[in-house]
Design goal:
This protein has a domain at 12-147: 2-Layer Sandwich (Nucleotidyltransferase, domain 5). Helix 1 (51-64) packs across helix 4 and helix 2 (75-81) packs across helix 3. Strand 1 and strand 2 (27-33) form a beta hairpin. It contains six helices and five strands; from the N terminus they run E-E-H-E-H-H-E-E-H-H-H. The chain has a five-stranded mixed sheet, sandwiched between helices. It is globular. The chain has helices at residues 51-64, 75-81, 83-97, 131-152, 160-163, 169-178, and strands spanning 12-18, 27-33, 67-73, 104-108, 120-123.
Length: 200
Amino acid sequence: MLLTFFDKTKIEAGCDEAGRGPLAGPVFAAAVIWPPDTKNDLIRDSKLLNEKKRLLLRDFIMKKAVSFTVAMVDNYEIDSINILNASIKAMHLALDGLDRDFNFILVDGNRFRQYKSINHLTIIKGDNKYLSIAAASILAKTFRDEYMTELNEQYPQYGWKNNKGYATKYHIEAIRKFGITDYHRKTFCSSYKYQQTFLF
């Protein structure tokens, strides 16, 4: 079972994002505050769960959380400020949307920017250590997946229903054949996994 809190004396908000690596679509982020007595043996990093389990757990999270929000930053802003800054902005927007006060933030990964005057802790692989971060990862992942599935109705040739905008062989071939859409990301920083794969 994941840990419910880092510090039981604090009101903690867990944060995570989904969609840093795709070639198309926005980055989503979520924030979750749990009640003190929360227990769930099934919640973990969304990448370790299949789609059916993620959706079932999303229902649990949305019913049981004290507060939760999901936010997104689109591909145009990703191109403008880079994916790291866009991911952090999405997490800040998610924190802005919480309707309960909190005084500590748990963040998955090792990069974050100060949010207001509230202390935070970045935790590598935090989405498989703390319940609030894992819950945020599930919300961000499921809402982004649904968004990309809806876009697939407009652009079925890219296979976004299945690849969610990631650089699968099918997606790469579709880009070569049909070009890019208004939802594709056009810039790639040096740390980007798929840099130099395309010439847009």
